[in-house]
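hey so u asked for the seq, here:
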Amino acid sequence: MDILRIIIAFFLPPVAAFLTVGIGLHFWLNILLTLFGVLPGSIHAIWLVVRSNRGI
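ran it, C-alpha cells below
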C-alpha cells in the first residue's frame, strides 16, 4: 500500500497527502506547495508517506 501511495504522491500530491493525514494542516500545506509547482508538492507528499510509515 505504501508503494501505491508513493506513486500517487509523485503524480497527484494532494491526494496522497489526504490519504496519509486526512484534511489537516499538512493537506492544505501540500495544496499550497503544489500550486507553487508539482515538484515541491510531490516532495512533501512523499515525505508524509515515508514519515507515516515509520510511525513518527
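The chain has one domain: 2-54. The chain has a mean pLDDT of 92.
lmk if thats what u needed
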